[in-house]
Amino acid sequence: MKTITKLALFTLVICLFQNIQAQTRTEIKYLSGTDKDHTVAWDFYCSDGMNSKKWTKIGVPSCWELQGFGNYNYGRDYKVKKEYHDEHGLYKHKFNVPANWKNNEVKIVFEGVMTDCEVKINGKLAGEIHQGAFYEFKYAVSKLLKYGEENLLEVKVNKMSANKSINSAERNTDFWIFGGIFRPVYLEILPKQFIERVAIDAQANGNIKADIFTASKKASSVKAKLLNLNGELVQELTNISIENKEGKISLSTQANNIKTWNPESPNLYQLQIDLLDKKGNQLHSLTKRIGFRTVEIRESDGIYVNGQQIKFKGINHHSFYPESGRTTSKALSIEHVKMIKDMNMNAVRMSHYPPDTHFLEACDSLGLFVLDELCTWHTPYLDTKVGKKLIKELIVRDVNHPSIVIWDNGNETGWNTELDDEFAKWDIQKREVIHPWGIFRKTNTFHYLPYHTFANDGYAKDKIYFPTEFLHGLYDGGHGAGIEEYWERMYSDHMSAGGFLWVFADEAVVRTDKNGVLDADGNHAPDGIVGPYGEKEGSYFTVKEVWSPIHIKKRYIREGFNGMFKVENRYHFTNLDACTMRAKWVKFDGPKGSAEEQVISESLVKLPSIAPEHKGKFHVNLPQNWTDADALYLTATDQHGMELFTWSYPVKLPKAYNKNKIIYSGNAEITTSTDDSQINVSTKDLELTFSAKTGLIEKVVKNGVLIPLSNGPILLDSKNEVDHVSVTNSKEKVEIKALMKAKRKYWDWEDNDQMIQEYLKWTIHSNGLVDLNVGMRSTRKTTGFKGVTFSFPEKEVAGMKWLGDGPYRVWRNRMKGTKLKVWENDYNNTITGQSGYVYPEFKGYFSSLYWAKIRGNNNNGFSVYNHNTHTFLRMLTPDKPTEALRGSDDTKWPSGDISFVKNISPIGTKFKEIGEMGPTSNKEMIFGNDDEMIKIDLTFDF
Fold this sequence. Notes:
Elements: H1 2-23, E1 27-30, E2 40-46, E3 55-60, E4 73-74, H2 78-81, E5 88-97, E6 104-110, E7 113-114, E8 116-121, E9 124-125, E10 137-140, E11 149-158, H3 164-171, E12 176-177, E13 180-181, E14 185-191, E15 195-202, E16 207-214, E17 221-227, E18 233-237, E19 241-245, E20 248-254, E21 261-262, E22 265-266, E23 269-276, E24 282-290, E25 295-298, E26 302-305, E27 308-309, E28 312-316, H4 330-342, E29 347-349, H5 357-366, E30 369-373, H6 384-398, E31 404-408, H7 422-426, E32 433-434, E33 439-440, E34 443-444, E35 464-465, H8 483-492, E36 498-501, E37 509-511, E38 517-519, H9 538-546, E39 550-552, E40 564-569, E41 580-587, E42 598-605, E43 615-619, E44 631-637, E45 643-650, H10 654-658, E46 670-674, E47 678-683, E48 686-691, E49 697-702, E50 705-707, E51 710-715, E52 722-729, E53 733-740, E54 746-748, E55 754-756, E56 759-765, E57 769-777, E58 781-782, E59 787-791, E60 797-806, E61 819-826, E62 844-846, E63 851-856, E64 862-866, E65 872-875, E66 898-901, E67 925-926, E68 933-941
Parallel strand pairs: 28-29, 28-36, 29-30, 30-31, 31-32, 34-35
Antiparallel strand pairs: 1-14, 2-3, 2-5, 4-12, 5-11, 6-10, 6-14, 7-13, 8-9, 8-11, 15-16, 16-20, 17-18, 17-23, 19-20, 21-22, 23-24, 25-26, 26-27, 33-34, 37-38, 39-40, 40-43, 41-42, 41-44, 44-45, 46-47, 47-48, 48-49, 49-50, 51-59, 52-53, 53-56, 54-55, 56-57, 57-68, 58-67, 59-66, 60-61, 60-63, ...
Helix pairs in contact: 4-5
């Protein structure tokens, strides 16, 4: 009996202790859902547009347009329509408040409302109307609540602000305009004596400073401890220096043996701060996640983190999802940050407004530098008073994130310079402020400069060059196109701090007023390196290779290869030997075989100890049978297990690879008939028709079914006319040769150094294989195409399987990011960024062709083997996007439908024509001497 009494007493004490502890912590109760995937239905009334003028239900948080209410607006509509839709929404929600909350302080928090927000609790105003769409705000509502009863929350939201300055800064913009309570709403339940907020500065040397803001009259001091992310004690922080001023307690202390935060090793801790009364009793306890790091912008030098100069490899990012607009989720934030990291980026710019808190938390934990931005586009908050209020809300919410290294005062002339010094008033870390697209203080962030002028040009050569947008990804241009040349110049320039691409995702929104179509507002919003739902475009992988921190110098495997590769460590904080690498030697099947490669040898590569920003070499062990391989793969993995990139190196060139794949044996009868216009050749189940005047193929019939390959090979970039066509017959084959009129002859170095005319030659073998050999003159430089082309109606193409670089198409200025292997794509008609959104795109240029099998619709298609190095397959012609600007679709295509060419087109960007983007974006291509011969050698298997 005594034992039971003691146990009961012990349990009571524990419960009381836990209750006391709970009362000193902040409790959160959501009134809305937590994200786009978890909403709570509130009563809702929309004043105009879809489903308006009636009370119904809406999920909160959300943008009301995406829920089928109101009207859609893109921010640039004002330039055309001179006005915006201006509906408002009324919300009602009932919630219960426990009676015991009467002993607490209660606040209601809105993480984001677009745009003007009036809040009432039980019919009474909670405070002044909040203005500004992307900022967290809160009201103290303890005196408005009915404890132990049901309470009524009423919210009125105006899509457009009553403040013209806010409309011009946030609404007249280059992004979609939405209305609604688009981020969560919750109650904060605090002890009566509470910490209002905490601002922390944790430096790389372990020094910690914190400002603890409180209105408590009982607060006397604070204590602090450092915890790991599991809440386990790392260090009791002693020797705390405290300064107590009215409304604020400042502390300074030192943490020992800490690990610093950087994007490569994003080490995080928790700082627990306890507010104490005079007797040392705990009044309130807060825990904030921190990272130890030091940020410096050194004038006429660079941007440094933890003493290391940084090259920012970044992208701009909006909070956006097609089906929910600006309402996102923690899961989506993590997915996006992981994709950004997967592209080997180390930075993200919050264009053009502060993001959800969970996005910043993902940047903290996964490791990205962040530029956090006050929301403006081209027009600043001219109302300085409201601008100051919004800067306060921005920094009070975001100040403790170690990922944030710079504040942006608006975007592209959207700077109220009276606000520049306002950031430091609220930031204990005193992070510096930049003007994106401007020359300001220590930085030149100018956007979209052409390659020949972009780095430190003009009078501001002493500024750190730091473009917050430098390649624009409209449709398939920009991003990967041109980035290698821009980046190499940036990387080698001490005064360059890197830069940011525009933008992460195509912002195509689901139009609930147009049967759910995806709408990117013409050419305004299809700028992403991924599609609306995260579909990876070709540039994604180009950037991944170019920005790989393991930078392998160009290398070809030829006779005498010794396995040695030159490498540069482009990490800022990580030794190369922290990464791993595997070498895989592989063989590929032909068109009739498997798409899977055969691994003949695989081994680890020992990466040497190379400090960041230093160079060295590594060696790949050569297995005894390495020359039997068709390719070598090198796959690098970082210290966290993430693949940096897989590089592929051909071991066999096409001629050697195809040598054993093509067998001409067979003794079927082959017959020929000719007249003045046609040459007809038949063998086995194949019937071929050629022009007797040009040598071009006119008709292919296999087993009585037409294969619609015709009108080729037309020699591109050649004005020579056919001189004569000859036919040579034998038992095993038929040769049809067309010689061009000999204006001059050219060296054929592969054929006994002879001087010969331009020609094309068909060889039809009795087993049905057909060889095509073309010799055409070279030129020192050309803006045309060198190669041959055929007709094959697009409607007859079902897909293709090929051995070559893939699976994505390439441009002349976007060759990286592919892998040599057997690929297979079904036909699609995706217009990058505009329609279809099926990637990889089927149509375009594909590099390093070995063979291709073209699948036909209602025909058997054909296979073709290529025997020459550096040959591109051109597969059909992509449809042009609408309203392509400048160079964003300034591309040339050969005549015909399927081509085999030695040079291809570059592509430009929204703001740059192709000639402005560096050497490989030039229209001209150098080939060699005028008296040399270019060879195209193919074998067709119909």
